[in-house]
Design a protein that fits this description.
membrane, mainly alpha, transmembrane helix, Growth Hormone, Chain: A, MFS_trans_sf, MFS, MFS transporter
Length: 206
């Protein structure tokens, strides 16, 4: 594992970008749940926000995987991170219960954009890591996702309590911008695999 990280700077950038963006994602999800409940006092409104934010994963998951398989993965990830950073900004206007629809809209938009992140990261891995190290890289990527959940949940709760919704929004915006910068510096040395429709039956690794 140490050799994998020490000898592959592009993989380190991909791993760090995933950890940072997923931490921001869980931070905003936790922060929004706290904020919606503080704003409305309604458990139903909070549950609706959580449902809206996670529904795209269920509905659009297969389509996101196909998109990651056909497009340049690095550019797709950079574009998604930048769009996610911009999509969060309307949350800064939320001041009263009647504006909770803004939260729902942003949660849906970021949920849709976020569906491409994990499939594209997984599809990019074989371009950066080959052979026996690919198994280790996949395992490390999965572990980083679990760490991101823990860090993001804690950061989101603390940030919204200490600085309000604006604090957690800016944390998430910064996380996506930093992730985009790291991904932009990734230079895959391995040729981009052919789209799934051009591969044989053994090509469907993901």
């Amino acid at each position: 594992m140490r050799r994998l990280l020490a000898g592959n700077p592009d993989y380190r950038r991909l791993l760090a970008a995933g950890l940072i963006s997923q931490t921001g994602d869980w931070a905003i999800s936790t922060g929004l749940a706290f904020h919606v409940y503080q704003l409305t006092g309604s458990a139903l409104s909070t549950a609706t926000m959580l449902l809206v934010s996670r529904l795209p994963d269920v509905v659009l998951g297969p389509a996101a995987g196909a998109l990651a398989d056909r497009w340049d993965r690095r550019r797709l990830l950079v574009a998604a991170d930048l769009l996610l950073a911009v999509a969060l900004l309307p949350l800064l206007a939320v001041r009263e219960p009647g504006q909770v629809w803004i939260v729902y809209t942003v949660a849906l938009a970021t949920g849709v954009l976020g569906t491409v992140l994990v499939p594209a990261q997984k599809a990019l891995l074989p371009q950066l890591v080959t052979g026996a190290q690919l198994v280790r890289a996949n395992a490390l990527h999965g572990q980083s996702g679990q760490v991101a959940r823990l860090l993001g949940a804690m950061a989101g709760g603390v940030a919204v309590e200490a600085g309000g919704l604006a604090a957690v929004v800016w944390i998430d915006v910064a996380s996506f911008l930093l992730s985009a910068l790291l991904l932009w510096r990734v230079r895959p040395p391995v040729a981009d695999p052919a789209p799934a429709r051009e591969r044989g039956p053994a090509g469907g690794a993901w």
